[in-house]
Design brief:
Length: 373
Amino acid sequence: MSSLAASHPTSAERIARPLVRLLRHPLVDNVVRLSTVEDVMQHVRPTASLTEVRARVLAVRDETPDTRTWLLQPNALWRGHQAGQHVTVRTVRDGRRVQRPYSLSSAPGDGPLAITVKRQPGGLVSNHLHDTLRVGDVVALGAAEGDFVLPAVLPTRLTLLSAGSGITPVMALLRELRRRGHDGAIAFVHVCRTPQDLIFGDELRALAARCPELPGLRVHLHVSASTGRWTPADLARAVPDWAGRATWLCGPSAFMDAVSAHWATHGARAPLHRERFTPAWTPPQPLDMPVAVQAARSGRAFASTGASSLLLQAEQAGLAPQHGCRIGICRSCQCVKRSGTVQNLQTGALSSEPNELIRLCVSAARSDLTLDL
């Protein structure tokens, strides 16, 4: 997933940068550490920081029994975002900092930032947010990223197609279209299991009934528990001219794969923009012989069969690389590969370039490696 900058540095960031450089100077660092300054600032004001975006929870809203929206007020280091982008949310669980990327469900100009998170069985961060994040609490945010956004010049006909929690970034796009007063034809197609599972249900029903800012909006809801399993043929019935509409798609992998295959089978030429919450994997094939992976900074080494990601194998070897999403989105596990060949598990591509940045969670060894770990 590529990154798209939301805006230029803020005035607060332009002020903070030279202060951070000063505090990191060896002569100053011997007197007072940047981390100490940060701790003091956050003790006085929890959202204050010279180095990271910190946001206070203004409100919490239940969307469904297992999905919740948090409204956030970020500090002055926030650079802004575009509808459809995501942020990495960082918080502390059991004394350990954890993070995951989540789509922003708000459009620029909506007021506070909003993230909408579905509780996942066994989910480390989603369950922590649902169980502990309350009004007044503070979380750290990464910069807005992602290219699942609307163009400057909007198409006259478009489709927003989602299933399950994939509605989150798609709803942000619909809110942005409303903010921009788009008067073209918009088909909003969403698939959910039951009416109780419909995220943003009240807002969608109100928009479907009457929305003067979006005169061309048509909302099509498919409830699979009563209507049966959704297939791309249902898209053709709801939106007969689907093949000629630019489409933004987000949902479970099987749903997205079915739509992508439908696009290819029918030779649809209209663009299909996709946002995946889980990666499209190229299953790693085990190597004939194990290879050696050297962790240069720690002096550790481990053998890799190439059958799983370098992140997982490093952890199994007792190393603790920094990581976040584990699906190739947040780049927290990015490190320098000094030498050797790896395979990108999202694209299948092989790379032997020395001193290149790789993401450990979506890379598998294909030769002896030296990593800057």
